[in-house]
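Project outcomes to date are best conveyed with an example. Our students and postdoctoral researchers have been running inverse folding experiments weekly, and each run begins with a structure described purely in tokens. The record below, which covers 204 residues, was selected by the lab manager from last quarter's runs and is presented without edits.
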């Protein structure tokens, strides 16, 4: 995925969600900055009830680098996971989710009545249903019904979102338990759902 991420070295700051891409507990987030002094200047605060702190060059005080005065230690989750499993295991798992997403996007795009609105860049793609003569409202209702019916079958969970006024279905591969057989189930259940949903709406 180096080509997809090729612009990152030019950034002054990056936000990361290890709780998504690295399969870690919810709330594990990260902010990387090129110049820590700028971050401190934006958040640094003092008060009479706070003890005097050593000079920044001698002591890193996280309360001076963000809005929270007290915080937990979410970085431990990342460090400990990499320490236990190794970086190679995470690289392999992330590469698998990317490959599964590309495969899923190709197979979903081949289903009847599916239009891909946002091809996958990392692990997510978006789409909607249509058919000849369908209105925007009918497409939205059909796509929403597709997400609900596919999830109701109990083998995969898919969600939707509204973008620029259109309801879009989404497939997002984020679980380390998702493998090729899961994509097979996704496509099978979506295909079955489409066969029941589109005729019901298009014949009204």
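After processing, the design step wrote out the following sequence:
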């Amino acid at each position: 995925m180096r080509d997809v991420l090729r612009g990152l070295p030019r950034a002054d700051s990056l936000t990361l969600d290890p709780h998504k891409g690295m399969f870690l507990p919810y709330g594990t987030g990260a902010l990387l900055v090129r110049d820590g002094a700028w971050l401190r200047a934006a958040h640094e605060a003092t008060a009479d009830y706070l003890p005097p702190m050593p000079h920044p060059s001698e002591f890193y005080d996280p309360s001076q680098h963000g809005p929270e005065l007290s915080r937990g230690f979410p970085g431990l989750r990342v460090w400990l996971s990499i320490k236990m499993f190794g970086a190679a295991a995470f690289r392999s798992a992330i590469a698998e989710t990317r490959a599964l997403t590309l495969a899923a996007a190709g197979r979903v795009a081949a289903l009847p009545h599916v239009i891909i609105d946002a091809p996958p860049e990392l692990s997510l793609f978006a789409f909607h249903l249509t058919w000849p003569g369908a209105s925007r409202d009918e497409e939205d209702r059909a796509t929403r019904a597709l997400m609900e019916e596919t999830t109701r079958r109990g083998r995969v969970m898919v969600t939707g979102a509204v973008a620029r006024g259109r309801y879009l279905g989404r497939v997002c591969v984020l679980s380390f338990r998702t493998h090729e057989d899961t994509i097979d189930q996704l496509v099978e259940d979506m295909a079955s759902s489409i066969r029941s949903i589109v005729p019901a709406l298009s014949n009204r």
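The longest strand covers residues 166-172. The helical segments are 18-21, 36-43, 75-85, 87-109, 136-152, 180-202. The training component of this project remains on track.
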